[in-house]
Design goal:
single chain, about 300 residues, alpha/beta, Rossmann fold, 5-stranded parallel sheet, two-stranded antiparallel ribbon, 9 strands, about 50% helix, globular, binds adenosine-5'-triphosphate, binds magnesium ion
């Protein structure tokens, strides 16, 4: 029998990092992602679940097109949370990633005041701040999903800066002070591994390598597109069109979407390929903009 002194207790630090997760289990997360048109393998679903559970950023690496970016978009849809995306590139700096002062607005304000009675602290107040994705995510009232896409494209100095943000979830604007996250955002970073990331960044993240899908999974993913395309065409047939699309159009359209590398419907790829489905100018005109966005949304939600 173990004495009280040798009994292992859960360390306080570990208990603190077990917030409630919006999904009761990995299975539940998988189902929610499937409803959001994303079919992860078990390894990715587990990594996503743990990232939510431990409130730790998740670094996704893998070849191009394996679903890294879409994983973040899908988890946002599954959580019904706002997605804030920071697209990284060479030369990305704080002014484009975090915040910058709105100089034009400051000048206008000074001009409007005429007498030169503008207080400097007024000019460097929240109204004159342009919020870029990182600050937007930290300031958000609700819990958001922050996607830091293609971090390997950013310079190493930016990666070093990011370390601080991901450790403390706070940002200092010298003129305003330190702004701490009200709710920790769920963070997903992606990398195509064009360069190796620093160990210090990796230490702050969970890591998952997304490989190419198995044959069965790839068939399932392609079927998702087929199901969405068929649902969209069914919706079109319910409209008052000169020439409702037939099965031949559906097949042509699926080929056009595949030729463009689409694996799911979105407004952009539907707009680009609609000529495969609708052959009358009037029909194309009547399915523009809002109608089209609505049809895409309901085909995806079917
Ligand atoms: N598991 C999946 N379930 C459903 N769709 C998927 C899955 N994996 C990939 N896709 C689809 O594959 C396409 C490519 O995915 P995505 O853009 O996320 O790839 P990526 O890894 O970010 O590529 P890149 O490195 O080029 O940015 C998207 O249309 C996405 O919806
Ligand atoms: Mg991507």
């Amino acid at each position: 029998m173990s004495s009280p002194a040798t009994r292992v207790k859960t360390p306080v630090a570990l208990r603190r990092y077990a917030p409630s997760v919006p999904f009761a289990s990995i299975d539940e997360l998988e189902s929610a992602l499937a409803r959001a048109s994303y079919l992860p393998d078990r390894g990715l679903a587990t990594a996503l679940y743990l990232s939510l559970k431990l409130e730790k950023p998740l670094l996704l690496e893998g070849e191009a097109g394996v679903g890294k970016t879409e994983a973040a978009k899908a988890i946002a849809r599954a959580l019904d949370a706002r997605l804030i995306r920071l697209q990284c590139y060479e030369g990305l700096d704080v002014a484009h990633a975090v915040y910058e002062w709105n100089y034009a607005r400051q000048l206008l304000h000074i001009r409007a005041a005429q007498e030169g009675t503008v207080d400097e602290s007024e000019l460097f107040g929240p109204d004159f701040l342009i919020r870029r994705p990182l600050l937007e995510a930290i300031e958000a009232e609700e819990r958001v999903v922050l996607l830091i896409d293609e971090i390997d494209r950013a310079d190493e100095e930016f990666e070093a800066f990011l370390l601080e943000v991901l450790s403390d979830f706070q940002i200092t604007v010298p003129e305003l002070g330190t702004i701490a996250a009200k709710q920790r955002p769920y963070v997903i970073l992606t990398s195509n591994r064009t360069r190796e990331l620093h160990d210090a960044l990796k230490r702050r993240c969970l890591f998952h390598w997304i490989g190419h899908p198995s044959l069965e999974r790839e068939i399932d993913i392609v079927k998702l597109l087929a199901a969405e395309a068929a649902a969209f065409v069914a919706e079109l047939r319910a409209l008052d069109l000169q020439k409702p699309p037939g099965l031949a159009e559906t097949i042509d359209w699926a080929q056009a979407l595949t030729a463009l590398g689409s694996q799911e419907l979105d407004v952009e790829n539907v707009q680009a390929t609609l000529g495969s489905v609708l052959k009358y100018h009037e029909d194309l005109l009547s399915v523009r903009d809002e109608t089209l966005a609505g049809l895409v949304a309901s085909a995806r939600a079917r």
